[in-house]
Amino acid sequence: MIMPIKHAWNLLFYCARILLVLCYSVVYYSCSSSTTTSKQDNDTITINATKNNDVYQRKANCHLDQLNINGNVVKVETIVKSTIPLTEMVYDIYGKYGINGNSGNVVLDFDNHGFIKKYSGFDINGKPLFSEIYDDETTDLTPTVVGAVQTIKCLNSQKNEKGQIIYAEYICNENVTLKMNMFFNEHGDLSKITKTYDGLDICDSTLYVYTEFDNHDNWTESEVSYYGYLKTHNHKYSVKRQISYDGEQSKPSLIYQLAAYNYKKDTVSYNCDMQKIIGDFGEISIPNYMKRTDKFIQYPPYVNVYSYSNSSDDAYSSFSLAYDATSTGVFADLGKKDFVYDSAIDDELRQLFCGQDNVKIFKWIPYRFIKKCGCNAMHIQYYRYGKGSPIPVFVEQYIIDYPKGKIDITFSYQSDKQSRFQEVFYKSLNSLKLL
Q1: What is residue 44's predicted lDDT score, i.e. its pLDDT?
Q2: How far apart are CA 232 and CA 20, in angstroms?
Q3: Residue 208: is its pLDDT beyond 50?
């Protein structure tokens, strides 16, 4: 027996739809913009390779020069430590060539002349997003803007004597022009990007600090800091890079370390006092820093709604509980087999959630059924953004089929603050008691 699609529509009718919009934030791809002359004096460097007796002949002005990478390199792997799925977010909007070469989960394979021959990207868990042969002639590597409908158009740019872009002017729609300046350190690596937006009266900046280098003077670890026009937009994350040189083709892949690197447990404890909410459904405790908000989600009058948001202005988080005493037996006609994951139902659920106004879902996590307070519950998770903040929001929703009604609980918070909010929200969920 397959769960009817109509149940998916019925389940989602009361789902809390907390909206957060996403502001314009430039995503810089180093292959196109951070160009520099090679640190080598000769046009080519010849070293006898240890594999297949091929000769490595790095050519001047190759992609390795543009990426400011020294030596006879065969592979470059970069992984990001951040609870924000940055690579998926950019890939979803702009495709593979919009991903930041300095801040994405990517692998670049090079030929014996220093040119990219294969380009691969991976999600936050290390699963492949794409992998294909690199075609330099058909690739437009212009910097892109997250939140724009399409790639922004370059109006003007200036380069220094090394060929590095130090100033660029772009238009992202009819009214807003983005002015961007790029700065480079003494190694020739990108160190800072500053951006201003005409018509919006806002600005932001991104700083790159390189903390580790290998014996070829190529960076292997860095810290990236993004500063938006609001405090809640600030975000910091770490980047690790592994460079494999000619003769090191068998070196273990860095991508295999991505999941462990990304999900290293935060040792900081964020325990807090809790406040109790008592209603017709029963009771639940939520963090005491949450304050009651107006009902900005339209529910029928017979649905009781409890909505709260973070009282501090340093980060976004929200909690909502909707109780509908008239809707019972949501999962009553389902047999045992129907509580097993079904890809068709999952696709339908995602489409329904994607239909929300002003919300863009860029990473959907397959639904699953769980038990909560002895009742069947559907667990839904996804990442979303709109057009007001560069920090996407992580959403967890629980639809509980309670014999006395249906309960819809939704937690949402800035995805870069997972260690701060997730633990206390799980504590809240475990405090639920039904009448």
Answers
A1: 39
A2: 12
A3: yes
> Cα separations (Å) of 312 from 5, 84, 289?
40, 21, 7
Given a cut of 90, is residue 283 above it in pLDDT?
yes
Residues paired with 407 in a beta bridge:
323, 400
- Reading the block at residue 435, the tokens are 């009448």
Counting Cα atoms < 13 Å in the Cβ hemisphere of 364 gives 16
For residue range 223-270, list pLDDT tens digits in order: 999 998 888 888 999 999 999 999 998 899 999 998 888 876 656 667
Q: Is the pLDDT of residue 102 over 50?
A: yes
Q: Which residue, among 157, 145, 144, 220, has the nearest Cα to 189 in the 3D structure? A: 220
| Residue in the structure block whose two tokens are 């929300």 | 356
The C-alpha atoms of residue 58 and residue 73 are separated, in whole angstroms, by 9
pTM of this prediction?
0.77
pLDDT reading at 195 higher than 70 = yes
Q: How many CB atoms lie within 10 A of CB 313?
A: 9
Find out whether 107 and 75 touch, Cβ atoms under 8 Å.
yes
Cβ atoms of 353 and 362 within 8 Å: the answer is: no
Domains of the chain: 5-21+268-434 (3.40.1000.10), 25-262 (no CATH)
CA distance linking residue 139 with residue 141, whole number of Å: 6
Q: What is the 3-state secondary structure (H, E, C) of 107-176?
A: EEEECCCCCEEEEEEECCCCCEEEEEECCHHHCCCCCEEECCCCCCEEEEEEECCCCCEEEEEEECCCCC
The residue with greater pLDDT, 119 or 385, is: 119
What separation in angstroms does the CA of 270 have from each of 61, 82, 231, 320, 423? 50, 18, 20, 21, 8
Question: For the residues 312-338, what does the mean pLDDT come to?
Answer: 85
Residue 164 has pLDDT above 90, yes or no: no
What six digits make up the tokens of 297? 């989600």
